[in-house]
């Protein structure tokens, strides 16, 4: 049993095989399982990277039939049933499998505008979160040293492309950071003057939620001081500018901004194209792979595709779909290994969607139930704590949230530069 990817889908697939008579190998290019729904809180100094990530080996330490392989999958030969992987030292190896679960996830999509990558940061990985933290915290620090108020403005202006949950959560957190945590810590600037602009191509925020909840979220962001611009696309980004184009009129406007964050969509990682080419399948929207009712690839009953890269009945690319899909694939394989022949169809149970807007204010929608404000915030918190991996992370996150509410401080504000040879180029 080989599982590629240790995200929500991959980890749940592995755990479903804990009692199976099989050798389970989990392949991931990193060493930690990341809780992506709270990535924006790491990016804005509320939580540490350790609070939202757990070592894969630690999570699987009690599963005696599971092993972890730190490497990146690059190619596949379905006829030989082998996966080509590249280790951390750049050496290459072939890993054989009897059953394969592909759960490699997605990456930030630029929709053909790859030139925008140079001056924007996406929001999919821990590296992205730390880069955003470096950019945001560094912007306040640079502004503090500039004597001219006009020079400070671009540094204190933050542009966010995309009005989905990630964009909304980032916008709210940056304003909260400026208004609460940094309020009394600077001498030359007033952090509360930070300008946060949210650009959305649709006519409302959070299109996946009901209109009433979208309106509630908009009102909360406006009270925080977030500027929202609807019906516009970000068409160019420079080192200190962001250009937007009105969808209807074609009017182009340019704003001064030293920080632009990109949250407008996702696409499959390169390995998924290698998989599609190898098995002769045409990729669906966003590069996803169409699967059958049991989540295996038609014509390849030994290959299962789960999580965000799986295209099945227009299910959304959210954590709950990934968890349930990974669990189902693992259970199907466990049943086959036990001598069964049935492959039950995947049935998704929709537990709803939630988004954090500001402190003590979140929205949650599940079926006819719609919550907002403090009640939504409490429900949002309970759900996220329940799904965090590990007792230590759950406890630590609760303590950090409580301390932040009581003191308005954020301790996770260290700036990391990555490669020391190019450190100063980060700004």
Automatic annotation (TrEMBL):
InterPro entries: FAD/NAD-bd_sf, FAD/NAD-binding_dom, NDH-2. It comes from the Bacteria. It comes from Gordonia polyisoprenivorans (strain DSM 44266 / VH2). The keyword Magnesium does not apply. Residues 2-326 form the FAD/NAD(P)-binding domain. GO terms for molecular function: NADH dehydrogenase (quinone) (non-electrogenic) activity. Its EC number is 1.6.5.9. It catalyses: a quinone + NADH + H(+) = a quinol + NAD(+). Pfam families: Pyr_redox_2. Keywords: FAD, Flavoprotein, NAD, Oxidoreductase. Belongs to the NADH dehydrogenase family. This is NADH:ubiquinone reductase (non-electrogenic).
């Amino acid at each position: 049993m080989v599982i590629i990817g240790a995200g929500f889908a991959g980890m749940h697939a592995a755990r479903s095989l804990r009692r199976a008579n099989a050798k389970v190998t989990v392949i991931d290019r990193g060493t930690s399982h990341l809780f992506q729904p709270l990535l924006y809180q790491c990016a804005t100094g509320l939580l540490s990277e350790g609070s939202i990530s757990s070592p894969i080996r630690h999570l699987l330490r009690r599963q005696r039939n599971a092993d972890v392989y730190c490497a990146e999958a690059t190619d596949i030969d379905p006829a030989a049933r082998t996966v080509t992987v590249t280790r951390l030292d750049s050496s290459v190896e072939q890993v054989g499998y009897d059953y394969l679960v592909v759960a490699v996830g997605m990456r930030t999509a630029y929709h053909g505008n790859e030139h925008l990558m140079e001056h924007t940061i996406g929001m999919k990985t821990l590296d992205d979160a730390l880069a955003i933290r470096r950019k945001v915290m560094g912007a306040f620090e640079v502004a503090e040293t500039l004597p001219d108020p006009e020079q400070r403005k671009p540094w204190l202006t933050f542009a966010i492309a995309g009005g989905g949950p990630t964009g909304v959560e980032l916008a709210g957190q940056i304003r909260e950071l400026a208004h609460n945590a940094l309020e009394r810590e600077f001498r030359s600037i007033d952090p509360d003057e930070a300008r946060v602009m949210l650009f959305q191509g649709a006519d409302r925020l959070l299109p996946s939620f009901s209109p009433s909840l979208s309106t509630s979220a908009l009102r909360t962001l406006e009270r925080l001081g977030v500027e929202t611009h609807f019906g516009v696309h970000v068409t160019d980004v420079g080192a200190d500018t962001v250009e937007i184009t009105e969808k209807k009129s074609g009017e182009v406007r340019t704003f001064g901004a030293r920080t632009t964050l990109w949250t407008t969509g996702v696409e499959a990682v390169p390995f998924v194209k290698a998989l599609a080419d190898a098995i002769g399948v045409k990729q669906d929207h966003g590069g996803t792979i169409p699967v059958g009712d049991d989540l295996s690839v038609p014509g390849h009953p030994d290959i299962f595709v789960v999580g965000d890269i799986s295209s099945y009945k227009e299910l959304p690319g959210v954590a709950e779909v990934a968890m349930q899909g990974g669990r189902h694939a693992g259970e199907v394989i466990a049943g086959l290994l036990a001598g069964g022949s049935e492959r039950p169809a995947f049935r998704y149970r929709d537990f709803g969607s939630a988004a954090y807007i500001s402190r003590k204010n979140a929205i949650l929608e599940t079926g006819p139930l719609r919550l907002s404000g403090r009640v939504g915030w409490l429900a949002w918190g309970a759900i996220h704590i329940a799904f965090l991996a590990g007792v230590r992370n759950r406890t630590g996150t609760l303590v950090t949230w409580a301390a932040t509410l009581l003191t308005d401080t954020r301790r996770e504000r260290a700036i990391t530069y990555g490669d020391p040879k190019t450190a100063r180029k980060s700004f």
